[in-house]
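Entry 14. Ran structure prediction on the chain below.
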Amino acid sequence: MNLTAGSPYYTPHVQRPAAFPPSDGYLPPEDPVAGVVRHLRAARDLKARFPGLLTVGSGLSYLQDYLPHVAQAVVRAGWMDFAGIGRMALAYPDLPADSLAGSPLTRKRVCRTFSDCTTAPRNSLVSGCYPLDPYYGALPEAEVLRQAKKPRT
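Output, structure tokens:
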């Protein structure tokens, strides 16, 4: 079972807590770490209630450089069986392999929760990591997204 909550397009603070909230006027009603903590507690409680249920907990990208450490801790503690990396995969698909190999993180690829992966679909554009992935940054949609993110006067 994949443990997640909310919709990144309608309630991004629930599923994609971010250091930089969507720039289209959506204001998160809570500190981003509150969503991460709520998710971890829900995963822990569900696993305690149904220990035989295999679970994947996502919602950890806000933790950025600490994601591998927290993921390892919660899996070892039995709060979840697997840690899903969600939007981190858009920016840094090799993070799990690098972490498991004991390699240092490629910090310039770590998701910094810029929210373009949320802002783009909220503007009918394909989701991707426009700031960190050259593929998305070169798309024509990147300019449309830049225009959508400009402050409205």
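Residues 32-49 form the longest helix (18 residues). Will compare against last week's run tomorrow.
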